[in-house]
Amino acid sequence: MPETAAPTPDSLATPLSQAAAVPLPDADALAGRFPLTRSPRPASDDERAQVLSDLHFGSVFTDHMVHTRWTRGEGWSGHQVMPYGDLALSPAAAVLHYGQEVFEGIKAYRHADGSVWTFRPRYNAARLKVSARRLALPELAEEDVVASLVDLVRADEAWVPSGEGESLYLRPFMFASEAFLGVHAADVVDYYVIASPSGAYFTHGLTPISIWVTQDYHRAGRGGTGFAKTGGNYASSLLPQQEAAAKGCDQVCFLDDVTQTNLEELGGMNVMVVDADGTVRTPRLTGTILEGGTRSAIIRLLTDAGRRVVEETISLDGLVQDIRSGKVTEVFACGTAAVVVPLGRLMGRDFDVAITGSEVTREIHDRLTGIQYGRLEDPYGWMYRLV
Ligand SMILES: *Cc1c(COP(=O)(O)O)cnc(C)c1O
């Protein structure tokens, strides 16, 4: 029973996309909110060059990190950029027991003229607030979140790579550090940002991935934390991800937990479907789906390019039929880390279908990365200069 498609994509007017559209002060005006204490032992130029010449994802980190702490009563204090290093944490820290944590993922891109930019930072800052609220964590003001990125990237600018498709991946996160085993919203919370130079997700063009649609597990449920970017959602996706790998698939896709028939998203990426008539469809935001900034930007780009974009219920059965009949020509996943990934194969308990198209996927990839890397004009004011 697909619901009627809305004429205008809802995502053009969600609270997150509206928050993201509020202009930010220039980075120069935000800089300095997190004063820098320089690392006594930064990587040497040679060590850094070595790392930057062979980039992967998420395994090496820059010389510094952001930290600030919140306590109930005092609020946030002690904003700083400090040397990167291990944390001293009480074994009783609440996050280790009850998972009270939220995070973000955003990239810094080096443009050809050497300047460094990020993509819609207020979107991520606003989403961190939304996530924090759901996890009963304190909110950090959007401008402070953006300022934390400015100050960290300015301290570690030399770590922003300049190769094709490379970036400095920024990971803001906030967690309950209070040493207390009672179950309550913590009275002490820490916010950090770490940065990791990252290689291109694709080195030889857009390579399609295979998907296992799990009919046994869900990553989120109604009234739960699916719309929040929190570690627990990822924890719940790991076993099904292992199951997907055992079936020979790259990634797992989840269905809704109520009807167990409708497509939701991958463990860390949203999903879009391209019809033969050019319409692009994506599951509506039901509360169990994470509202991706990439999803939101793609909806805007496609809509403005004159394409019909609809957010609707997409049933797995219908999708498999439509792929078989040729009514659906492309399926892709999207998120900050990979930008867009074509899905080449969809497998589940009783189906296994191949998807061969990737024309629209490629078009979106080129347009979005073109804007992010400064090769194409940015008519939306999405890019924010950090350095
Ligand atoms: C982060 C994330 C996405 C993608 O969000 P972007 O803002 O596009 O990076 C999608 N789904 C889940 C579950 C996520 O955690």
From TrEMBL:
Entries under Pfam families matching the protein: Aminotran_4
Domain of life: Bacteria
Keywords: Amino-acid biosynthesis, Aminotransferase, Branched-chain amino acid biosynthesis, Pyridoxal phosphate, Transferase
First-tier enzyme category under EC: transferase
Gene3D superfamilies, per database record: 3.30.470.10, D-amino Acid Aminotransferase, subunit A, domain 2
Reactions it catalyzes: L-leucine + 2-oxoglutarate = 4-methyl-2-oxopentanoate + L-glutamate; L-valine + 2-oxoglutarate = 3-methyl-2-oxobutanoate + L-glutamate; L-isoleucine + 2-oxoglutarate = (S)-3-methyl-2-oxopentanoate + L-glutamate
SUPFAM superfamilies: D-aminoacid aminotransferase-like PLP-dependent enzymes (SSF56752)
Protein name (record): branched-chain-amino-acid transaminase
Species of the source: Actinomyces respiraculi
